[in-house]
Structures are given as structure tokens and as C-alpha cells.
Amino acid sequence: MNLEYINPSEIEKRSFSIITEELKTMGISPEGDTAPVIKRCIHTTADFDYAESLKFSPGAVSILKNLLKEGVCIVTDTNMALAGINKTALGKLGCRAMCFMADEAVAEEAGRRNVTRATVSMERAMELDEPVVFVIGNAPTALITLHEHMQQGYRPAFVIGVPVGFVNVVAAKELILRSDVPYIINEGRKGGSNVAAAILNAILYS
């Protein structure tokens, strides 16, 4: 295989061109407002399964764009997802992003109650007196906790739910897929903090 010599500033553009070409070869041509999200997830992971496993609630991309334009608060379930979100793009819209996972008080409460830090983190986020976009890339318990509180009347502004793993991951995603909140969910076991950040960045860039 021959190496391609590409100007560094053109590498990402070339990558997306390759993704588009390979999707067409597979008989998949994502179009419309979901295409940038699908392609960026593939770009982040080199995994073309995302072309079929990503699920969007009706009008999801438009809803999330409008929330971002309104300066919505974003809460992640990991500091890795938080680090992956483009802060410059976020700042231009007047949005802020936060993660409670590393807070000592969260760790203490989680240990005392014998629950995950993700559970306590979501509870802290739900106490915020403003709409919240949840960006979940690691902890299925974060989605489960959200769903439990949704049953009691809480309504997230939006849920990006792509936790990765084996224990309760698929079932936790299904809870959100069956809900009436706006979401972007990746079915199955795949996902991760990098994918969660990539989804939000795709919306920010578009």
C-alpha cells in the first residue's frame, strides 16, 4: 500500500472524504442533518457500524442545535468526555460544560449509599435550576438514574447516550430509546466518552 502525502491541514478533510466513499461502497449514503454526526463518530472510531447503530429521536439534531444556541448547560458522566468537547465552539454559544464525577463529596456519598458516582453525579445535575443536556459515554447507571427520575417527572433537555461495555449497557440505552425525551443513542454495546464528545462536537461544528 502506498503512503499518501497530504498537507496536515487537509488530513481531516481527506478522512471525511474516505468515510463518504466507503459508506457509498457499503450502499449507505447518510444525508440530512444526521450525516455529520454519523460521519464524525466513524471518524473518531474508524468503526462503520455507527452508520446503522446510531438512533435519533424525531428532530433530534435541530432540537440540540437550538438548545446550544440558547446557551444550555451540558453535563458529562466522565471528565474524559468533558475534555473532548470543543470548548472554543461551546464558548462562542455561551454554553458551559461540567462534570461532577471527580468531586470528593460525590465520591463520599456514592460510597456511603453503595451506588456509583455516576448515579450521584446525575442527581447533582438534576438539581441544577436550568435545562441540562446530558452527554453520557461511559456509565449505564447514569442513564438508569436519569430514567428513574424521568418516571418521577424530571425531564432532561436532551440525552446523548452512548455508554460502552457489557453490564446493563444495552438495557440502559433501551430505557431512553423508549422514552419521550429527545436523544441520540447508539444501540448495542459500543460507545465511549470519545464518541459522546464527538456527537456533541459534530453538532457544534455544524
Commentary on this structure:
The structure is a single chain. By secondary structure, the protein is α/β, with parallel strands linked by helices. The chain has a single domain (8-205), classed as Rossmann fold (3-Layer(aba) Sandwich). It is 51% helix and 12% strand. It contains eleven helices and six strands. Strands 1-6-5-4-2-3 form a six-stranded mixed beta sheet, with helices on both faces. Strand 5 (158-161), helix 10 and strand 6 form a beta-alpha-beta unit. Helix 1 (11-25) packs across helix 2, helix 7 crosses helix 8 (117-126) and helix 9 runs parallel beside helix 10 (169-177). The model has no long low-confidence stretch (mean pLDDT 94).
Outline the secondary-structure elements.
Blueprint (H helix, E strand, L loop, with lengths): L10 H15 L9 H11 L4 H4 E3 L3 H10 L3 E4 L2 H6 L2 H6 L3 E4 L4 H10 L3 H10 L5 E5 L3 H11 L7 E4 L7 H9 L5 E4 L6 H13 L1
Parallel strand pairs: 2-3, 2-4, 4-5, 5-6
Antiparallel strand pairs: 1-6
Helix pairs in contact: 1-2, 2-11, 7-8, 8-9, 9-10
